Amino acid sequence: MMMLDQEPSRERIRGLTEEAERLQRAARVRAVRRARRDARTRAARVRRALLAPTSAGEPYAPGR
Q: Which pTM value belongs to this model?
């Protein structure tokens, strides 16, 4: 009798863990996409800063 009572509960737990794993995978995909987007944005900003014209035609010199 006890075995019959435990089986449905194990099925529910298995279903919940599968759902949790699916949600974790989706969260990881979103995190990777966000990281890529942030990296592209950072690269574009750096590129813009390095290619920006300087005053009096001087070459870009960091720290000045």
A: 0.55
